[in-house]
Amino acid sequence: MSGSSKKIQRPLSPHLQVYKPQMTSVLSILHRMTGFAMAVGILVVVWMLVAAASGEQAYNVFLHYVGSKVGMVLLFGWSVAFFYHMSNGIRHLFWDMGYLFKLQNAFRAGYVVLLSTVVLTGLLWWTVCPFNVH
Amino acid sequence: MAEFKLPRHSRIEKGREIDAADKGAKRKKKFSIYRWDPDTADNPRMDTYEIDLDKCGPMVLDALIYIKNEIDSTVTFRRSCREGICGSCAMNIDGTNTLACTKPIEDVKKTQVRITPLPHMNVVKDLVPDQNHLIAQYNSIEPWLKTDSPAPTRERLQSAEDADHLNGEDGHGPAGCILCFCCSTSCPSYWWNSDRFMGPATLMQAYRWISDTRDEATGERLDQLEDPFRLYRCHTIMNCTNTCPKGLNPAKSIGEIKKLMVTRK
User: Fold this and answer.
1) For B132-145+160-263, which CATH class?
2) Residue A26: how many CB atoms within 10 A of its CB?
3) Tell me, what's the ipTM?
4) Partner residue opposite A13 with nearest CB, options B43, B118, B235
5) CA–CA–CA angle A25, B133, B163 (5° rounding)
6) Testing the interface with B: which of A9, A18, A85, A103 to mutate, by most B Cβ within 10 A?
7) Residue A133: its pLDDT value, please?
8) What is the pLDDT of residue B176?
9) Are B123 and B36 in contact (CB under 8 A)?
């Protein structure tokens, strides 16, 4: 059996392949993904500032790209990421203070985070909606 | 960097289908079981056994024992107490970690019950994972009472309130842990960092001794955990608390340790 010189290569048991997505783990990975998305999005903010500092022409180029269909979709995505990351960040602050560890409360706070993401994103886009501008 | 895919030799292949239920059986159910034999060079596979539920007990462990006794004696798994106190039969059943002995078969609504070993572990055989590393981490927190003061003539006493830290006011405190490691192996952070991150089970036991009013090594214990990996790879995902078959709360214990780290500065 183990007398042979051949080393047994033990398999690694399946993990992501079998583990059911949990409310707990899905919200957690979303937090990291939205954080990463915003790290990329900050480059657009830098572009805006550089363009604004460079003069009207550069800023118009910035507006042209950001105002395009693709630009608007990306902006919408970044706004969702921002509000999710912010809301869930507050949930993390409560954990850091020792609250919301009861499973039921952790779940409830998770649903509040999702709701607040929808509401805050909706509010933001409602305020900048063209129909809303007089 | 986390490795999301299974290594080549760990990829699961399709296995055998064994229909062991009578034609006239009224309550049939399929059990798809992870199989790997160290004596062969084959990859792991999923073998499916269809059985008559009227011939076995109500829990998933009963089905496993029925399969081993009546159909295929090579199916390998750990079990002992069959009542949720020894922690031996921890495995992944229908996508979450739990004890096979306390998991009712009827809880799994699908036609097929998928059973795999505890996730992201080296497999010894079939449903038996290698727990040496988990146990070594548990030993590293020195899970025993440490004191400098001379031993009293009788037991070291504790008030009921102080004991609540260990047993929990609701009876679900850290002392209720049976070390089945369902929690540690449900934690994605532990999957990717188990070489240095202690994992929820061990950290909850660390807190069990930190919060013990009779223990006099609290500072030393906190010093040992003050590390970017050992403690702080916990990102409060809470899969641990979500999966604990004993209803305990490792995430809360870890949160308490983090609070102590801040307040002692």
Assistant:
1) mainly alpha
2) 12
3) 0.94
4) B118
5) 70
6) A18
7) 56
8) 97
9) yes
